[in-house]
Amino acid sequence: MPKNPRRDLLALAAAIVAPLAIAVALTPFRGTLSAANAALVLVVVVVAVAANGSRLAGALAALSAAAWFDLFLTQPYGQFTIAAPADIATAVLLLVVGLAVSQLAARARRLHLVTITDADQLAQIERTTALVQSGAESRVVVDQVRAQLVDLLHLQGCQFEYGKLLGHPARLERDGSITQGRARRHPTRDELPDEEVELRASAAGQFYGRFMLQPTPGAAVPLQARLVAVTLADQTGAALDAARSDGTRGPG
Q1: Is the pTM of this model over 0.90?
Q2: Which of 102, 150, 215, 246 fits a disulfide with 192 by CB distance 3.0 to 4.6 angstroms?
Q3: Do 105 and 50 contact (CB within 8 A), yes or no?
Q4: Does 94 share its domain with 9?
Q5: What's the count of helices (H) and strands (E) in the chain, helices before strands?
Q6: Residue 77 carries which DSSP code?
């Protein structure tokens, strides 16, 4: 997911302030508003923070909501103590549900960013997925993905290296950004560096190889195309993982 430091800082601040403000706003109604309904209102606030911030902001908002719920909306008021067992259960549920929905909201925001709207790109993913699911030899999948990457990323060339991690080339990351040494280029920049770039193929935590991309200087490579490339590399990793499980030899 593209990083925006200013937005992330604002989201972290909102994670603390927004649940506090809502909890304070609900205090005049705590005599008539049930603890469960108050907790639901706070869950909505947590979702709003998570949907516009990071997973960390969502988790912090859930913790903040649970704390302010305890302090302002359960007896004895003004203390981090809960007398009624039912309110204790509600507070725990608020925390658990808040954490869960905050992570789902953050994931949904990320998935929205990677939605594929180009029909040709979607077709490429579908073709490779079908090839992997058909049980095709891993080298066939590698060859197909290599050709797809050349077209998709406007490359001068592309090679696959099986099980190698030599050197420290620039790397295409899962969020579409490029890592060069310790520097990380913002993923919304629409080009690859002029130097060779690696795109790793892995599955189930196992590294199987990498595509070595040879970019065309000055060619525009949008974020969406780079994210599709990452998906294709993942499918390659899945094919190689299946080949390993079946005892089939991968590409050399």
Answers
A1: no
A2: 215
A3: yes
A4: yes
A5: 7, 6
A6: T
Q: Which domain holds residue 27?
A: 5-113
Domain final residue, candidates 74, 89, 113: 113
> Beta 178-180 vs 170-172: how paired, if at all?
antiparallel
In a domain, 170, yes or no: yes
Cβ proximity of 201 and 240 under 8 Å:
yes
Closest CA to 228 of 196, 199, 197: 199
pLDDT digits (tens, 9 = 90+) for 118-146: 667 778 888 898 888 888 899 999 999 99
Distances (CA, A) of 94 to 28, 126, 240: 20, 40, 43
Number of domains in the chain: 2
**Would residue 251 count as lying in a domain?**
no
Give me the CATH number covering residue 176. Answer: 3.30.450
Residue reference for tokens 């089939």: 248
Q: Is residue 129 domain-resident?
A: yes
Query: Distance between CA atoms of 86 and 25, rounded to whole angstroms?
Result: 22
Q: Is residue 171 part of a domain?
A: yes
Digit-coded pLDDT (tens) for 171-230: 999 888 898 877 776 555 667 888 899 999 988 788 999 999 999 988 888 888 898 899
